[in-house]
Amino acid sequence: MLPDQILNTYQNACSRLICLDYDGTLREFADLPAAAAPTSEIMALLQALSSDGNNTVILCSGRDYTDIDLWFRQLPLVLIAEHGLWTKQQNQPWAALAKTDNAWKVPLLALLQSYLQTVPASFVETKNTSLVWHYRQAADQVLAATKATELVVALSHFKQDFPDLQVMPGNKIVEIKLGSHNKGTCLKPWFDQDYHFVLVMGDDTTDEDMFKAAPANASTFTIKIGPGHSAARFHLADPVAARDLLAQLSRLSHASHQ
Ligand SMILES: [Mg+2]
């Protein structure tokens, strides 16, 4: 249960920041990432929250910017993709933090592909600036989780050649990217501002960077979606509960503009 304090603080704040992860937070996972497109319910929620002039709503995802652009560019949101590498301010083009050189992917791809035989039904997703090994569909989840741990260790050896390599175990995935940016560093320009209400929601390892970077005060509500240890102050069970909270907030916005 979340305290009424969230609703009360939202209602009384005239400047609000809402930072939302997408997969596993707003939207349930699908077997294949491409199948997890936003539903009309999610689009309506984001539209309602972002059309309140007191709200700045940021969608902060690890997905490719091409997915995020396709799905969300028509909404008045700040869009952040690939764990902060790409940012799109409203009515602006996408801007990248750094030039991307993908030569690092070649040796790692060979290692990831060697896991496809060991864990049947696992697959490798090649994103613009990262590689992801997915094992959600593997029949033997115990074996897959063991292999994921082994893979993380094997990948860490590549840090000798690529010191900026980040290996990020997540929900039935292991993701690898290059660069020191993360979901916390990319949100710093907003976290440094004096919002009267800050909400941060995420479900996975990479979202912990947002929780840790968020302002530490009573008007900041960090919420981990799903089970597991987290730096977030609060927990909600699943994306259904996350959407329910956002719906309650959007109703408060709507009521105050009547
Ligand atoms: Mg997520």
In short:
By secondary structure, the chain is α/β, with parallel strands linked by helices.
Structural class: alpha/beta
Biggest sheet layout: 8 strands, mixed
For the record, the count of structural domains works out to 2
* Superfamily (CATH H level) name of the largest domain: HAD superfamily/HAD-like
Please give the CATH architecture of the largest domain. Answer: 3-Layer(aba) Sandwich
> How would you describe the shape?
globular
Number of strands: 12
Please report the first level of CATH classification, the CATH class of the largest domain: Alpha Beta
Poorly predicted runs: none
CATH domain topology of the largest domain:
Rossmann fold
Order of helices and strands: HEHEHEEEHEEHEEHEHEEH
Annotation field: number of helices:
8
Widest sheet, order of strands: 5-4-3-2-1-10-11-12
The helicity comes to 25-40%
Q: How confident is the prediction overall: mean pLDDT?
A: 94
Which cofactor or ligand species appear?
Answer: magnesium ion
Distance between the termini: 29 Å
As a whole number of angstroms, the C-alpha radius of gyration is 19 Å
* Beta fraction: 15-25%
